[in-house]
Amino acid sequence: MNVMLPPMGFNTWNTFGASINEKVIMETADAMVEKGLLEAGYKYLVIDDCWSEYERDPVTKKIVPCKKKFPNGMKYVSDYIHSKGLLFGMYSCAGVRTCADYPGSFDHEYLDAETFAEYGVDFLKYDFCFMPATENGPMLYRRMGMALRACGRDILFSACNWGVDNVHQWIRSTGAHMYRSTYDINDSFESFTEIAASQIDNLCYSAPNCFNDIDMLTIGMYGKGNVGNTGCSDLEYKMQFVLWCMYSAPLMIGCDVRNISDAAKALLTNKDLIAINQDPEVRPPFVATTHPWNNRCKVLVKMLANNEYAFAFFNMSDRENKVPLYFYDAGVPASSGYGFDMTDVFTGENIGIKSEYICPVVESHGTLLYRAKLVKLPESK
Ligand code: GLA
């Protein structure tokens, strides 16, 4: 199965944790359509951990959906999700138990892949808890990768081993289409900035068919829900989304979309930002500049298709800063006679053709994002 662009969708874990059920899932499916999220590209609705009974069926050995939470079974939920034009995601684990202590797929990989195919599953998140001590990650992800490829249905394989065991070196060979490279996010500025910083040297391991997944978004949670913490401001959520877009990271919404705020909805459905995330060249950004006196201020540059570029200016520090970008550091020296024709992605304002450098003022925890074309400078007389 080819997955050429970063997957987009919604996952239950960040907000709901174990408090999932048929009603929540069906209402979420409705909201994803009504609020324009599906239209913006968020097509996977993924049920995370805690969906099953505590033990497998003793006779068939199959995992059994929790009768209380899903009284009509998973095919019923799957059919409803599909009837809305969405795709259906589920969760299991490479170990004996899942991280929240429900049955995992260890030694049942082929049976479980067949069961997920029967449900009509299109996406499987595969976690890493409770493994036998003598097992190893590459083998277990390979086993489920093989089982999914054989199950008769196209199922996107979303590996989740939190970045341990140098996962970027072997995960692509297991058939995974995306792989979690970090520990769990929580809804705070510290959490998402640390996660982003941890992967800056590993973005070269993100490409079509296997994307570096820096975890589900917390945008719109404002501190509520299962991984709610201090929460973030809308300004900080803007930084989170720009980071995920610049990284070509999978975009999995984690807030309660049934009552999403206008600000979070506008951010998550911003077409120009999503276009940077979904750029067909899928190139990692590079760090073009770090502020000379404050390494909490950085500029990332990402090459896009058609000789276009995205420039993101981040100020993660506690005070306003001027954040310089010398075009020299982006591969365009003054002697080239070229400059960048730049448009502010958030305001839509064209700020003209700039040569040699720009040095915008960025407020504390603020982000500026420009889309630019590399053009020949007009002859100066
Ligand atoms: C792990 C994963 C999370 C979530 C939980 C569920 O911690 O990293 O994303 O799936 O398990 O228990």
Overview in brief:
The protein is 25% helix and 22% strand.
Task: Record keyword descriptors for this entry.
single chain, 381 residues, alpha/beta, 8-stranded parallel β-sheet, 6-stranded antiparallel β-sheet, 10 helices, elongated, binds alpha-D-galactopyranose
Helix residue percentage = 10-25%
H/E topology pattern = EHHHEHEHEHEEHEHEHHEEEEEEEEEE
Q: What distance separates the N and C termini?
A: 56 Å
Q: What is the spatial order of strands in the main beta sheet?
A: 7-6-5-4-3-2-1-8
Largest sheet properties: 8 strands, parallel
Average pLDDT, all residues: 97
* Stretches with pLDDT under 50, minimum 5 residues: none
Derived structural class: alpha/beta
For the secondary structure, the number of strands is 18
- In oligomeric terms, what are we looking at? single chain
The kinds of small molecule bound in this structure are:
alpha-D-galactopyranose
Taking Cα atoms only, what radius of gyration do you get, to the nearest Å?
22 Å
The count of helical stretches stands at: 10
Shape: elongated
Strand percentage: 15-25%
Report on this model:
With 381 residues, the chain is an alpha/beta fold. 25% of the residues lie in helices and 22% in strands. It contains 10 helices and 18 strands. It has helices at residues 13-16, 22-34, 37-40, 73-83, 109-119, 137-150, 189-198, 234-246, 262-268, 271-277; strands spanning 8-11, 44-46, 87-93, 123-127, 156-160, 178-180, 211-213, 251-253, 286-290, 297-304, 308-315, 321-322, 325-326, 338-344, 350-354, 357-358, 361-362, 367-376. The chain has an 8-stranded parallel β-sheet. α7 links the parallel β6 (178-180) and β7 (211-213). α7 packs parallel to α8, α8 runs parallel beside α9 (262-268) and α8 runs parallel beside α10. The radius of gyration is 22 Å and the shape is elongated. The model has no long low-confidence stretch (mean pLDDT 97). Alpha-D-galactopyranose (GLA) binds next to loops.
